[in-house]
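COMPLEX REQUEST
Ligand: NDP
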Amino acid sequence: MTELHTKLHDIYDEVARRNPGEDEFHQAVYEVLNSLGPVVDKHPDYVDRAVIRRLCEPERQIIFRVPWLDDSGDVQVNRGFRVEFNSALGPFKGGLRFHPSVYLGIIKFLGFEQIFKNSLTGLPIGGGKGGSDFDPKGRSDGEVMRFCQSFMTELYRHLGEYTDVPAGDIGVGMREIGYMFGQYKRITNRYESGVFTGKGITWGGSQVRTEATGYGTVFFVDEILRSRGQSFDGKKVVVSGSGNVAIYAIEKVSALGGTVIACSDSTGFVHDPAGIDLDLLKEIKEKRRARLAEYAEARGSSQLVANRSVWEVECDIALPCATQNEVSGTDARHLIESGCQIVAEGANMPCTPEAVKYFEDAGVTFAPGKAVNAGGVATSALEMQQNASRDSWTFSDTEARLAEIMRRIHHRCLATADEYGQPGNYVAGANIAGFIRVADAMLALGLV
Ligand code: NDP
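STATUS: Structure written out below.
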């Protein structure tokens, strides 16, 4: 780890001391503070008025019991979380994650990242995140519904279109949003569309929200390529994961002329040199909720490779779209040796600090999740805008807005990196630009 600016060192130490055992949260805070040295030199106010210390402390953290009945009639107990991190720019906004690995440290890292990501979009949304250690895998539809209803029976009192607006994340898609929105409506007796995003089109959702994070990721990479006079044409791309973000990243890469030759899930990866068969992948992952082994079996020409990393597959562009810390230092070395030129994070913090350092040293372009995957939350903000005006836009209109937002985020990152003397550094650009907008709002709002 590089040494932090002296004024930021104590702040980081305090975060680590006051939030013991929350490794992912520490990692996310360190990564942002590491970029802020030149900013506090220029604007000492941000330290003197404790803006950064306040940013590292969530406005509110809610932890609650979620009891529910499984199909055998047995009582199950999970833990629910909502971390309302920062509302200087708008209502708390960020997804819910249902995965057995969820604990407070994961939700806080995601909520902290969300503050800067949402700020970067330029839209009026604050940062938050939530979820549960509930594992939807292998659960029946009825069990998922009962869990969601119990989760919302507690959480509803903390939500509202002007207060806190959740969406999906790992393990939470349109089905789960439907069950939670339904329970919210039932308890409050209000059809408050703007309280959730990621809704179905017939009940207040927005076109392109399902596709937004994956498409936005690819639009961002397309901007990187364009800035060098290149395109996706003929590029070999590896995508990790095969969930919501991965599937729509694969779709847009293909539409722009690239070929996605491998993707993965938690059981392994498939290498398909002719290009992933997207219709088959959607059928297996979205409709059947099955494992990637079934893809390999149905495809015939590819095999599921277990116990090895998808990053061993040679590519020009790598898009990690699964989960945090999935790209290790060893993976980074494989990618560098195989000639990969661009790594762009579709997931949140998928690259370890060691991997990022290797990319920087090797001159591989590295673009961080808070910029690259911001298209998801940006389209959520567009969904809120449509809900507020009781309007709905066409697919092509919404997609054009998403593409424009990603173009602006890319420009903002590069312009800010230039301004702070680090040309081409997307990490510095994203962290500094995201930070300044929210920090200035916090200063303007008084001591909050
Ligand atoms: P999904 O649940 O739809 O898909 C997640 C994918 O990642 C699955 O293929 C899953 O495999 C794999 N995965 C998850 N956890 C692990 C793990 N511990 N080890 C290996 N593989 C894993 O989630 P999303 O696609 O929505 O989210 C993916 C990433 O993108 C997350 O980091 C999320 O925070 C981020 N993101 C999502 C946004 C959205 O709009 N959905 C917005 C911005 C960021 P398996 O099914 O086998 O578990």
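REMARKS: The longest strand covers residues 75-86. Residues 6-55 form one domain.
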